[in-house]
Amino acid sequence: MAENSDTKRPGDEEDDDEEEIDDANYKTAKDAILFAVDISESMLQRPPPSDDKKADRDSPATAALKCAYQLMQQRIISHPNDMMGILLFGTEKADLKEGSTIGDQGFPHCYLLEDLDVPSAQDVKQLRDLVEDEEQAAEILTPAKEPVGLSTVLFCANQIFTTKAPNFSSRRLFLVTDNDNPAQSKIDKDTTITRARDLYDLGVIIELFPISRPGHGFDRSKFFDDLIYPTSPSDPDALALTSSTTKISGSGDGISLLQSLLSSINSKATPRRALFSIPFEIAPGLQIGVKGFLLIKRQEHVKSCYVWVGGEKPQIVQGSTSHLADDTARVVEKTELRKAYKFGGEAVTFSEEEFKQIRQCFGDPIIRIIGFKPMSSLPIWANTNKATFIYPSEADYIGSTRVFSALQQKLISSKKMGVAWFIPRRNAAPTIAAIIPGEEKYGDDGEQVMPPGLWLVPLPFADDLRQCPEQTILKSTDELTDIMSKVIHQLQLPKGVYDPSRYPNPDLQWFYRILQAMALEEELPDHPEDKTIPKYRQIDKRAGQYIEEFGAAFKEEMTILRSSNRGDIIRGPLKKRGADSEDAPAVHGKLAKRVKTEGKSQGDGDDLAEMNRKGTLSKTTVAVLKDWLSERGQSTSGKKADLIERVQEYLDSKGM
Amino acid sequence: MAGKEATVYIVDLGRSMSEKRHGRRQTNLEWSMEYVWDKITSTVSTGRKTTLVGVVGFRTNDTNVGEFVDDSEGYENISILTPLKQFLLPDIRALQNDLKPSKTDNGDVTSALVIAIQMISEATSNKSGKPLKYDRRIIMVTDGFGPIHDDDLDGIASKIKDDEIELTLLGVDFDDEEYGFKEEDKAPEKAENERILKQLVDDCGGNFGTLAEAVEQTALPRVKEVRPTPNYKGTLTLGNPADYDATLTIDVERYPCTMIAKPPTASRFVVRTDLAGALVETQSTATVVGDDHDEGGQLAAVRNQRVYKVENPDEPGAMMNVEPEDLEKGYEYGRTAVHISESDSNVVKLETEQGLEIIGFVHAEKTERYLPMSRTNYIIAQKTNSEAKLALSSLIHALYETECHAIARLVAKEGKPPCILLLTPFIELDTEALIDVELPFAEDMRRYKFPSLDKKLTVSGKVITEHRDIPNEGLMKAMSDYVDAMDLSTFGKDEDGNSMEYMQLEETYSPLLHRINHIIRWRATHDTYTSLPEPPAVLMEYSVPPADLIDEVSKQLITLKQTADVKRVPPKQKGRGKRNRDHDKPLSGLDVDALLGKTKRVKIDPQNLVPSFKQALSATDELEGIQAAADEMGAQIRSLITTSFGESNYGRATEAIRVMREELIELEEPEIFNTIIKDLKKQILGEDLGGERREMWLKIRDNRIGLIDNKRSMMSDVQLEEAEEFYRAS
Asked: Residue ranges of the SAP domain (chain A) (predicted)?
């Protein structure tokens, strides 16, 4: 019997690693977002024209649609299985798309611009056209003459979610409006509150993105606080964060409406899903509750899939795997499968129960602090994987937040870290993790850019440490170090920090640009934008002088070293090297400015000579020996012993 | 890659090996074998064909020295138990049967040595008798009783030396000054033997030790050494040498610094059916071995076969199988399939050239320690290149002195996607390197927001610093004292008793890796058992804080617990759970239930199914009310299925069932749900709901929204097995 599977990857391998599977589940918990944008006179009003380049040109409604457009493109990359839709309300026109099963009662002034679904290339195109083509936009974006009640919109959203995304684990309504009191009457208000309650019972979260008009702030308490529920009823304290109100800026006071709305929406773009929720034992007998989040994770592009081209329209195929016994090619039921380890040419089997016991003998999932060490005990070389963010939760232990906060503040002020025994999930391998504090950080506009909390940095075990290959060192001189330090000072990144947001993944961006162009059947772009390529001109301008200085000092130092009798330095074919280092830079006209140590072919053999003296030549790899010999026109055939012999003969003949 | 090895174990099987000495619960032989099995099984687990193992017993009942000596005179009571070969599981089993203490004291240890030397020499020479490159070892365990012919010890010692064999001798209760063991009341005969053997081992430069130490060391996990292999060989550049003059180019190589050692993975097997008949017949003889251990040879590997389906264009809603020939590669862009023909497959790939280029420099202390997201590597200068060495050293030292790190872009091979690396200086006695680790791109950062931990914002925007979620001074002080008291940086002790860092990386062993290795090897030497052994203590050592330290800080701990005042949320109260709970309220705290009209019965609205069902439940306190709401919900679900065009309503029906199931579990009325779902199953499979609805049943099965068992809800009288059985369609 075949089991269904969602994976479409060709040649998909069965993965036995429990951890990976969990990771995947975490990602595939599906999310559906319905944008509801208020189309009223004030939402369509453009800011007064201004000469300032930074001033707003968009009306709040257009800004909202632009945000939706950006978000849609982003989500295709980051959440390819998630749904999105756009509902305009307050429009003159009403349209809920054909074939819709959404009731017969009709929803006046609700215009479903994009049905709730995984976006298609056409959806992206349609939305882009609307954002870019004002005439077309004007046709749809005409406000109704009568005021429109919010209750209809909420019920409309209810129906859309019920029919289009019935069993999505996360469903959210993004409501963009500048009207903080849309109710016409007491009855209208009560109906709206009831409809909001329906959405809550349905499991739909309303995210409000309020926009304040000039001279009129947006007061949530007037109306919206009756509609919006704390997002996590079991953990009311975990999220008291509401999006900040976006203001329509006057001319040129920095951040534009669009940017501000974008940042506000971006922070809600991915539903916050906990990776785990486990006890955190700070001390024996003192446990609190924490949730773990992956705030840093490598974003990959979608895996390729198989497309069936036998029909008129290409179709994505669904693959399923069945198991066959290797000896008889008989189809095997999953229950017949036994897991076994290969050992000594045979299989060592354990029962299912024993397998569980083997993996779970380390105890229940927990983060247990073993003790504390100074932060300096956590060198960068000890990194093994990405860090996990943890944040307190009051769901199981009341008082978790204050204890967590006390620990976090103490670790920050004393520059200390915790060391913990960490089992994230049942069946997961235990690890030792360093617990380091993360300070809350704000951007220039006062928005949080880094949340406050603790980070679990997994540490390597003795088994995971690799030795650095043996090497002979040629230590830098004070002069060289000093000049190089000047180069370093000249080439500091802005503020001396690495800011990930400045470096989009060029491979990922290129992939989706091409894919989008192909999906929309447009011309392919020819130049990738790659912000990770160093700014060569700036490097030359700012540090060129010092690099030249370094080159000169370096050359001098090498000459001294070579003429000295230091055993560890080249006494190799001086002549050849001299010729090389003069030839290569000559192409560019200037000598001495390049510390060019060309490829292997110029390797001196100084090390081999040295190793021969020390009698450690046999430690060299065959590859190195062969390279060395071939550079000197010697034969590279034979076994390692032969090669070594030949190297020795050569060195002898040269008197080395 | 390790070199070739040949190891012969010489095991004393004399009568005295069956004794239990010095209050041990094991016989001398069992104790010795603890060490030998550990060594042999770890060899077996490497699965290397070039690692040969042989076993010779002496003081055995029989004599079996094969063709190694022409005349077995002088070699009585010596047996070759396993010739030198790659040791496999059947060899282990055979050996286990052979390793029984004998009824004799006779058998000369030095003669056994001669046999072992012969075995090694034979197995490690080529046809013309020239020795091949092998690591040769003899490991001998004995309790030191029995006669020793000491007439040709010099000859043996020099032979061992000439053949470059490493001899290790481990004695049961042998004196060992270094380890600090001396046996009291040692039999004079044994003392003399110990002296002779020690002399022999010293003469050939071998190792002589007491067994206790060796057994003790088996408890320490062995770390597998891996030979460094470079994952990048190329240049480290600053600037663009093609367009500018002032640039820096250094030839470098990159080697792993940390690499997670993975535990062995289990593979899938299936019991071979063609042998099933044979199994019955041989069962009587197989009972000696006992259980499924013997199935080793009767398991067949499992192959995966993939089948591809698409929706049939001529028959919407139905699927059809398609042939792999008709498939081409493509990608999904949203829900649009973009098909890319084989010849175009490179179009989505970013063209890159190999290289490691410095982008710029950052302050070391401003680099957040939680950003690095990968394992680490060493970057060192090309091995035979002095200029590269000097230049890289300048960079390393300059980074070190300026307290800066470099940010670089790495393309490990032509065409590979670039990644951003953090380069940090690493300077130790004989090592200078850059350590690199990957940093996130913009897309890798998830911008979730979390409330501040040291202050609260009210709805009106006011900042509060006193709140039950914010620690007061007392708690801050208690936490600070506890953290300082629990410092591990000087808690450890080195060999001389000086304080040092406790729990250094080198002292921690991967628990799962060694646990699985341990249990496989244990299982290979234990045919019958009642329960699996616990993990070795060394793997659990760092799972709890050191007890001594906890004793020391008891005062700080008590204060911390008191000031923290953490209370566990009690598990849900028994009885009528949800019916008495506080209903969820919006931010304003408005009582929406009052608005909905709590008294009147809420009608289930098919257009608003889930919410109205929930509201109906919360409006009633009576069993009849719940029953009525559930019945009506059931009716609506049936109607959804009946009116479904193809599978169009299945999602909604599934969600409705799921909600009903959860709500009724919460209300502790599993019976109401179980009755409805049983009927529903009957109706679906009986094709009473608008024809063939098997896919709907599969949805119920796959989402596991069938019977509520008594593990899920205490009030249910459905057993787990019954609930499982329910999912099997019939």
From this structure: 617-651
